[in-house]
Amino acid sequence: MVGVKIYAEGGGGKEQDIRCRSGFRKLINKAGFAKRSPAIVPCGSREDTYNRFKVAVAGRNDDYMILLVDSEEPVKNPNEDPGSDTAWKHLKICDRWECPAGVSNDQAQLMTTCMETWIMADHQAIIDFFGQHLQTNALLPPQNLEVRTRHEVQDSLHHATRNCGRDRAYAKGKKSFQILEELNPDTLKRHLLHFRRFIATLDLHL
Fold it and tell me: Are residues 51 and 15 in the same domain?
């Protein structure tokens, strides 16, 4: 049986890799894949993630490799069909990354525009995680989040949580993967086209 291995942007160091792997796995399992969970490979930076993915797909193995990275910028003409070539086109324009030979369109998956967009889409999870000192009126509305820049999304999270305490305010890496575990995949599917594409792709191969 062919397994699925996701090369994910994030992590960096033993502790962060553990958090990254746990965050993605728990969210994916809640989306209906608990009995057929993919392997998560934390790869650190975007560039390192792409390079490790390229090495993996060039090797001989039976796993289906998936690249999962931030889009960094809003995606032009987004398409949630797993077979769409939009993700690879976006990565070529923004990063000059080529689709490796023999790799399918659905092996490129985007968090548009960043992982914080996934977090911002689930206001209830944010409220439950940060508690009473969260400034909810600083959160971006969940509609049309994927057209927001990553700076808008990240700044909004920092601003909304700045009064939650020194060890409670949002911090990329330190808090992001903990919150990722708490997100509701149905909420993300409702608001995020690229998350729907990601889940549809997993459903095809798991």
Answer: yes
